[in-house]
Design a protein that fits this description.
Length: 413
């Protein structure tokens, strides 16, 4: 119906331009009767339809796998930060969204237990210093057979136990970001700091001033967005098309017009039993501050690519189970067609005169096998060998087929 309307409008326009002659209407509705499977058009009809002629092209066509997913960061780029030892929050030094560096102080805690820990360390350090000297003395006497082995073994055992305790207290101080050397020198701190273990952005703060926090409480969350990547969900039927290094074009749900690219670096090895998809991870080619973890995304994975003959999608038309293109056949003797039409047409003189001054184009329908469809182009394989420089209708193949069928119907009547 649509094709008939367009052809009708084209003919009406051409009639108007020529004064509405009835004989012109008769010949523009169908210029000449060509051989079966061929459309004959005048130059004016070609122009009115906007029909473009060109050669079959060779292009890279890619199979696209549609996919959805979300933006994520790897586990090593996220941190939930807690207190090593419980305490009261004395100060909070950051706000949600702040950019922080590794080692930067996020908060300060205070508690009497911190002081007690440092006092214990000083005491043990003093005892260890004395016991170490005694151990060395007993060892020397034992080696000279002056002291008994029993006395030496007792001193050695006490020394090792105390040294282990010293190292344990030292490690606890270091976990609290306190300097063991400063403590030994008598510098006691009533506070400890909570620091960021990585570069990133503060995404959550779960504390308030004065709150007592336990070691199990998550105080802060920090995320390093520089390691942001795309986690796509690919269904079972498309898994065989995937491989590392393939490109993905995607957009975020909140801004579908903005496109980004990524490169696949890891393909999941386990299929989800319920959803029947695997996780496919891709590095985002360029870092954008507008992209954030948790955003929903959709895109296309560019899988296998072939270099093949193809035409614009509008140049290929299907009729039932078969597909066709229209090829310009310059071997057709349009003059003989004109003479044949001259004998059959009741408006011979006027129609013939109109056509003799106007070039005619014979477009022959050729069956093709279609392959991949990508980026507005369709892979084709003609069922007959065509010359390399063959001219083909690059658009409006649907309307040419409709006109051909209209002609066949008129012949039947």
């Amino acid at each position: 119906m649509k094709s008939k309307l367009i052809i009708y409008l084209v003919l009406v326009t051409m009639i108007a331009c020529n004064g509405g002659k009835s004989t012109q209407h008769h010949h523009d509705e169908h210029v000449l009767h060509g051989p079966e499977g061929m459309v004959i058009l005048t130059k004016r009809q070609i122009d009115a339809l906007g029909l473009q002629l060109g050669t079959i092209q060779q292009r890279n066509l890619t199979t696209l796998v549609k996919t959805t997913g979300e933006l994520e960061v790897p586990p090593s780029a996220e941190a939930d930060i807690s207190a090593v030892i419980g305490g009261n929050v004395k100060s909070i030094n950051v706000f949600p969204g702040d950019k922080v560096s590794k080692g930067q102080v996020l908060a300060v805690l205070e508690h009497p237990d911190y002081i007690s820990l440092q006092e214990d360390f000083i005491e043990v350090a003093g005892q260890l210093n004395f016991l170490e000297q005694e151990y060395r003395r007993q060892k020397e006497l034992y080696e000279k057979n002056v002291a008994s082995g029993k006395d030496f073994q007792k001193v050695e055992t006490d020394y090792k136990i105390l040294k282990a305790r010293f190292e344990g207290l030292k490690a606890r101080l270091q976990l609290l970001n306190l300097s063991p050397e400063a403590v030994i020198n008598g510098i006691i701190s009533p506070t400890v700091t909570v620091i960021s273990p990585l570069n990133g952005y503060v995404n959550k703060i779960n504390v308030r001033l004065g709150t007592y926090v336990n070691t199990s409480d998550v105080l802060f969350g920090v995320t390093d967005n520089s390691h942001l990547h795309a986690d796509f969900h690919v269904y079972e039927k498309d898994i065989h098309l995937l491989k590392e290094g393939q490109k993905v074009t995607f957009s975020v749900a909140g801004n579908p017009k903005e496109e980004y690219t990524a490169t696949i670096f890891a393909i999941g090895k386990e299929l989800d039993a319920e959803t029947r998809f695997i996780h496919v991870h891709a590095h985002i080619d360029n870092h954008f501050h507008s992209l954030l973890p948790g955003m929903f995304i959709s895109g296309s994975i560019q899988t296998d690519t072939i270099f093949t003959d193809c035409l614009p999608n509008d140049a290929v038309v299907k009729d039932g189970t078969k597909a066709y293109i229209f090829v310009l056949d310059e071997s057709v003797n349009t003059k003989s067609l004109l003479e044949h039409d001259h004998h059959e047409d009741e408006h011979t003189d006027e129609a013939t005169t109109e056509h003799e001054d106007e070039p005619l184009y014979a477009l022959r329908m050729v069956e093709v096998v279609v392959g991949k469809v990508s980026g507005g182009f369709t892979e084709i394989k003609p069922m007959e060998k065509l010359p390399e420089d063959s001219k083909v209708a690059l658009n409006n193949a649907y309307y040419l087929l409709a006109d051909l069928k209209k002609e066949e119907t008129s012949h039947e009547h």
